[in-house]
Amino acid sequence: MSENKQVDQLHLPGVNTILAVASGKGGVGKSTVATNLAVALSALGQKVGLLDADIYGPSQGTLLGLPPETRPDVQNEQLIPIQAHGIFCMSMSFLGSSKTPAIWRGPMASGALQQMLTQTAWPDLEVLVIDMPPGTGDIQLTLAQRVPVTGALIVTTPQDIALLDARKGIEMFNKVEVPVLGVIENMSTFTCGECGHQTAIFGTGGGDQIAQEYQVPVLSRLPLSLETRLASDAGRPIVVDQPESASAQEFRALGEVVASKLLNQAPATAPMISIVDE
């Protein structure tokens, strides 16, 4: 016996499109990509929000250079997003201590995320970028099923172990009928600052392999860059800190491609969940 159920979605007033930036595993630079992509979209003239959905390891406050004691104002029981580098941001790091971990089971974390989503007073946004937590657990499924996600980006590195987990991320979005707009291959090559020689530290062809397997494009190949790491640690996205650098140029090009894809993407609808009793 099978039964199809329509999933009730959360209503986010004023948000036109929602873009999920996801990865199958941690350590591939997903949050750095999400931050710089959001800033790049803002530089194109779009009004952009950034939601840090990593309940257990929020990092957007640090990446945007916001002090640890940053707290949002509350008006009419709604959280007012924090503005930084031209974008509007909300993160669990604004609601607790940076030294206190969120020791929650899955349902508690999902509930906290839904509360943050529905109680944030986003201004009218062209796009809300969601920095997803790594993996394919409860929080990821809650977001994919309950939020009208317009499209998703998968961030990976070229190495085989990262590609294994990236596949799981794509499969998850396929199952809940969220379009995967493309793959971003991060840490693609390293260029020596002394001699200019390029080295593929994590291998080559990984992004192309998974893109061909799932019939999605590789949207960008971002370099492994010391400047990007230093800028991120300093709380200044590389797009802002060193706009003429190779990394910043790649992020701006990525922003243009993503903006075009979102413009042509159909509005999101709630997925149909099939329940099978065998």
Tell me about this structure.
This protein has 278 residues and is of the alpha/beta class. The protein has one domain (20-265): Rossmann fold (3-Layer(aba) Sandwich). The protein is 34% helix and 22% strand. The strands form 4 sheets. An 8-stranded mixed sheet has the order 6-7-3-8-2-9-10-13, with helices on both faces. It starts with a strand and ends with a strand. The model is unreliable at 1-5 and 270-278 (pLDDT under 50).
Instruction: State the CATH topology.
Output: Rossmann fold
CATH hierarchy: architecture? 3-Layer(aba) Sandwich
Q: Strand sequence of the main sheet, in spatial order? A: 6-7-3-8-2-9-10-13
Helix content estimate: 25-40%
Q: What is the alpha-carbon Rg in Å?
A: 18 Å
* Shape field: globular
Helix vs. strand class: alpha/beta
Q: In CATH, what is the homologous superfamily? A: P-loop containing nucleotide triphosphate hydrolases
What fraction of the residues are assigned to beta strands by DSSP? 15-25%
How many separate helices?
A: 9
Ends: how far apart? 7 Å
Which ranges are low-confidence, i.e. pLDDT below 50, for 5 or more consecutive residues? 1-5, 270-278
Q: Which CATH C-level class is it?
A: Alpha Beta
Beta strand count:
14
Could you state the order of secondary-structure elements as H and E? EEHEHEEEEHEHEHEEEHEHHHE
Quickly count the domains. Answer: 1
Name the average pLDDT. Answer: 82
- Quick one: biggest sheet? 8 strands, mixed
